[in-house]
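Dear U.,

Please find below the material for section 3 of the report. The protein was modelled together with 5-O-phosphono-D-xylulose; I have listed the sequence and SMILES used, followed by the predicted complex structure.
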Amino acid sequence: MSRNLKALIGPSILNADLSQLFEESQKLLNNGADYLHLDVMDGHFVPNLTFGHPIVKCLRSKIKDAFFETHMMVSKPEQWIAPMADAGVNQYTFHIEPVTNVEDVCRKIRESGMKVGVAIKPGTPVSEVEKYISISDMVLIMTVEPGFGGQKFMENQMAKVQYLRENYPLLNIEVDGGVGPSTISCCANAGANMIVSGTAVIGAADQASTIKLLRDTVQTAIDK
Ligand SMILES: O=C(CO)[C@@H](O)[C@H](O)COP(=O)(O)O
Ligand SMILES: [Co+2]
C-alpha cells in the first residue's frame, strides 16, 4: 500500500454519554483520537435523530483545534453546508443516495472551506461513488446500515474497499460501523486508512490502548 497514506482513527461519539459531550470528546482526544466523527441524523434519511449544527458549534467553542468530521445522514445535505461551516466543521461527509446533483454539493462544501467526504450505504454499488472521487477528499464505505451505533460489522463491504484501494492508491478511504479490535484487521487488509469506531472505543476499559491498537494495525498494513 502507498506509504504516503496515514492511518487515522476517528471515534464516533454517537454511543457516548451525550449529556457530557465536551468531556467525552476531550477524553477521546486526550486518549489519542486523530479526529472526531460526529454523526448527524435527521430522522428522515435514517430512522434516528441526533444533533445538528448548534451542538457542533458549542462543542467547537470548547475544543478549538481538533479536526471535526460530520457524517451527514440527512436527506438534504445541501441545506446544512453553510451552518456546519459556520459551526467550525473541517470535513463534511454526506451520503450521495438522496442527492441529485452531487457535483454541486461537493463544490459548495469546498467553497465553504470544508473538506469533502462522499459516503455510500451498504446497498449502494461502489461505481456510484467512484464518479466523484476526483472532486472529493475521502470516500466513506459504510459497514452497517446507517442510523445506529453498536451494529454488527458487514464484512461483505470489504470488496468495495479493496476495489477502491487497488485503483486509487492515495485515496482516503474511511470505514464506519461495527469497527473495533475484532474487525480492524479485515478493514486494514482491505485498504481502509480512516477508521471510525464508536462502541468499541467508547466502551473500552482502556481507550488509549484501543485507539493505539486500531491505528497500529492499519499503519502496519499501509507500510507492508
Ligand atoms: O454512522 C454511524 C451509524 O450510522 C456510525 O458512526 C456508528 O455510530 C459507529 O458506531 P459503532 O458501529 O462503531 O458502534
Ligand atoms: Co458515522
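For the text of the report, you could mention the following: The domain at 8-223 is CATH 3.20.20.70 (TIM Barrel).

Regards,
Y.
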